[in-house]
Every structure is written in C-alpha cells, then in structure tokens.
Amino acid sequence: MHPIVNNHAPVTTLLVGKVVAITGATSGIGRGIALEMARHGAKIAINYYDADPAQIANLADLTREISNIKGEKSSFLAVPGDIAVPETGRALVRETVSKFGRLDVFVSNAGICPFYDFLSIPENVVYKTVHTNLTGAYFAIQAAARQMKEQGDGGSIIGIASISALVGGGEQTHYTPTKAGILSLMQSCAVALGQYGIRCNALLPGTIQTAINEDDLKGEKGDKMAAGIPLGRLGVPEDLAGPAVFLASDLSRYVTGAQLLVDGGLFVNLQ
To answer: Is residue 3 one of the residues assigned to a domain?
Structure first.
C-alpha cells in the first residue's frame, strides 16, 4: 500500500479574494474541498441538509475547522436546505452574494447513493436520487451561472460526477445515470456559458472512502478494490481537493468542458 501524503500547512495564494459556494459540504468530498479552498484563501459558503442530524453535527466541526484556518468566522456561511428542491440552490447563491458580495466558484457536490438491486428498487428511491443528484444540481448550477453572468467577469463551475459516469454498477442503476448526467451537463454548460467567460468542468472521483460507501467497502471488498488500483489504495476526500482548487483557480483559465478522473488509475486498469 502506498502512503497518503497529507500536508495541511496553510496556503493562501491560489484563491485569495474568491468566493466559493459548495453543495453538500459537511462531510466527504465536499468537506475536503471546502477546507482546502479555505486554506487557499477563499471565502466559503456551503449548503447542508438540515433534516439530517449527522449533517448538523458535522457542520459544527466544519465551522470550527474553517474558523481555525481563517482565524475568524466571518469568511464562512452555511445555508440549510434539501438540494433536491430547486429553491435550495437558488437560496445558496442568493445568501452567498448577500454575505460576500459576489460568487466566483460554484461546486455542485451534493449526492446520494443508496445501493439497491435493479429489479426491486422502490420508485421513491429512484426519484429521490435523480432529484438530489441531477435535477437539484441543474437548478443550483443555473442559479450560479446567472449570478456569474450578471457580475460580468467570468467564473468557474465544477460538477462532481464520478467514474460511474463511464462504467456500470449493478446496484447503482439509479445512481450512474445521474453522474453521467452531471458530466454531460458540464460539457453542455461549457458551450452555453463560454461566451460569458464562465468555465464548466467535471471531476470524476474513483472509489473514494466516504459515508456513502463506508459499509460497502468494509473488509475484503475494499481490499480487493484497492488491489486493482495502480496507486495501491482507495481514495480519500482530500484527494479531490487539489484538483478542485486547480479548476477553481486562474491556473485553469483555459480549461472548460473537461473531465478529470481522480481515481488512482482505476479506470485505465479496469479489465
């Protein structure tokens, strides 16, 4: 197993002066991105699902960590709501601009993936997954793009898709189409919004250890999956943070419509 190198020394160069909004950011990939972007100097606004006690508890920890990074609380905003409801995304954008004056980067990250057999999956699970992962993301991204167009100086939109946008999953028949949809949405938005200087790109995580798949990756299955990854380990949320910072920053000013696999080499090793 190859070691994970963690370097959490404060970095304040790439995103200084930028305002970032992230959906579903109290845990997992969203949390990792929020923390790293804060380290790079950004002001952070997040969305969280206030009907979930775990997210409320995680929010307290995230607030404390960002406050420690920034040295104060005024550079952080948390907006409650279910991202499956279109108004939630609009509220996130509206309150972000109300507090910070603008929006430079939008990360559509919120998603769910309850594993189910295709032949027995309940209808409500299908609808909830689609509304959370794709429909809600669509309207949140639209709200962000409208704000960026109004500002008149471009912006960066990042959709968290998945390696599942490119491969199938037997117990993910309701999930994989939503992630393919996010990838396709970012490609189409890149075409639609390029005239306004708004860049739209997708990150495709591989097998990342988060609360969504914690039970599924326990024991032998997780070990077997790690053995098939060229880098020799499963991913962790922090592995997505650096690529997200890159796409948010001016280093990627000529990158739009792109898809970036962050999978330790899993996709090229699939047989």
So the answer is: no
- Burial of residue 85 (number of CB atoms within 10 Å: 0-12, 13-18, 19+): middle
Is residue 1 over pLDDT 50?
A: no
CATH classification of the domain holding 122: 3.40.50.720
- Signed CA dihedral, 222, 244, 115, 48: sign only: positive
Known catalytic residue: 252?
Answer: no
The per-residue pLDDT for range 104-145, each reduced to its tens digit, is: 999 999 999 999 999 999 999 999 999 999 999 999 999 999
Domain membership of residue 67 (yes or no) is yes
Helix (H) or strand (E) holding 247: helix 238-248
d(CA 2, CA 62): 28
pLDDT in tens, 199-226: 999 999 999 987 766 666 676 777 888 8
Q: Which of 156, 164, 175, 249 is catalytic?
A: 175
Active site residue 224: no
Summarize pLDDT for 162-172 with one digit per residue, the tens.
Answer: 999 999 999 99
67 tagged catalytic = no
Catalytic residue among 75, 179, 249, 252: 179
Given the residues 162, 164, 249, 252, select the one marked as catalytic. 162
